[in-house]
Amino acid sequence: MIRMLFPAGMVSVLMLVSSHSYAQNIVIGVVPQQSPLVLFKKWQPLAKFLSEQTGYKVQFKTEKSIPEFENVLYQGGYDIAYMNPYHYVVANKRQGYQAALRRKGDIRGILVSRLDDDISSINKGAEFLFPSPNAFAATLVMKYELKHKFNVDVEALGHYKYVNSHDSVYKGVARKIGDLGGGVERTFNNFKSSSDKPFLKVLYTTKGYPSHPIAYKADMPEEVKEKLTEAFLSLPQGILDNLSMQEIQLTDDKEYDAIREIAKSLMTE
């Protein structure tokens, strides 16, 4: 076996060069729960703040649809990723992403309807709209609870469509493209369409789960992660308000074990 030995000083230099080159351009990928333009307006101030605080060039990136985002994420295409809890457990398994931070509070799925509907609208003849197959609270958890609490097996009935984003779900229900739609509290609160939102209400809310994590790619140097984490924790309230986050807190991989359990249950039923 051939070994390559380096003097201690050279090892330090190599680590410094690696860290420096990695940090020249850091891409933060954000799951497209809303349109790319809306997300740019919300997340670009955060990317700018991180760049100013760390000295790294942090670039915001999203995709046109959640499936496209999943494809890039699962290939390790982002240095930092903000994703739903199900995306995280898959990205952790495939690419070693490590959860570091998350919004304080839990994520809950919601089922929206038009104003004139009531709980009886959750029936086997309803047409459901969901953002994407693997949207955690809006699709996976919602389907699970519809089946176990209302005896409505959406998958078996086949009365559903995927419409790419949460905003598209809300618009679709308001415009009678579908009867009921899956989303989450935060995106519904951020949904500002004056021609659609007045016709909508939240019909049902799921139980809570750990919120979307911010995770670092496995090969990111520790010193880079430490600087970024420090900057995330010092975000001005104005930027947090723009993202509908009251506070960001530390998290770790273990907190998402509960998501692994429910994902296993959802996938095996």
Automatic annotation (TrEMBL):
This is Phosphate/phosphite/phosphonate ABC transporter substrate-binding protein. Keywords: Signal. Gene3D superfamilies: Periplasmic binding protein-like II. Residues 1-23 form the signal peptide. It comes from the Bacteria. The keyword Oxidoreductase does not apply. It holds the Pfam family Phosphonate-bd. The keyword DNA-binding does not apply.
